[in-house]
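Workshop exercise sheet. Pairs work together: one partner reads the sequence aloud, the other fills in the structure field after running the prediction. Swap roles for the next sheet.
Pair: D.N. / O.F.
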Amino acid sequence: MNAMIFAAGLGTRLKPYTDDRPKAMVEVAGRPMIAHQLLRLREAGFRRVVINVYHYANQIIDYVNAHNGFGLDVVLSDERGQLLDTGGGIRKALPLFGTEHPVLIHNVDIFSNIDLTALYSRHQTGNAEASLLVSRRNTSRYFVLDKQDNLVAWKNMQTGEVRTSHESKREALTALDGDDEELRLRAFAGIHVISPSLFPLLEKGDEVFSITNFYWQQAATRRIRGIEAPDGFRWVDAGKPEALAKAAEIANSKH
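Structure field:
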């Protein structure tokens, strides 16, 4: 099984921790974030893991090499020439995966108790080309799903902005302020699985682009679906200093 860890960001929300290190090397429960993610992926049965790097890239490279990739086939996707955003990062890394198997994408600062093996398997046995882990979490920006879990749109609840390729549903999406009989607002968890059938479309995109934009742009014609997290789901975005303690709690419950 293949996976990719997004670790190239500048980590500006985590200052001052990231003044002298990349976000991936900020410690949670006594280990750098990158170590937690690699260990989780190894336990889940993944074998090849691509890590994209940019900010203080050598620290990540040296650390992973010093630990022999934590027993994984780790490959670095070097973005030091240009930071490519999430979609561009996947696009650059595509040659490192081959075209036979789906790829699980995981943000380095996301800590959760989701069963990654089950998530990957559910994608493989389903009919989706991309499966996005979502939950009932309060946030300002949501993916909008229909009753069949198909992605319909992205919506910013604070500004009212709607991004969708389903133009016939724009009026309903603009008026949507909560779940109704047809549409549901769900928060993206920063973990998703993408199938090789979408790789050619990624390769046609701009060099720098967001994967969330790619998903809503393709939603009207491709099988982009949400997978709702189960009961008991624990999750935190550890990209802010005040979230590190909760990330440690989740990490300690897994190792």
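Discussion prompt: The radius of gyration is 18 Å. What would you look at next?
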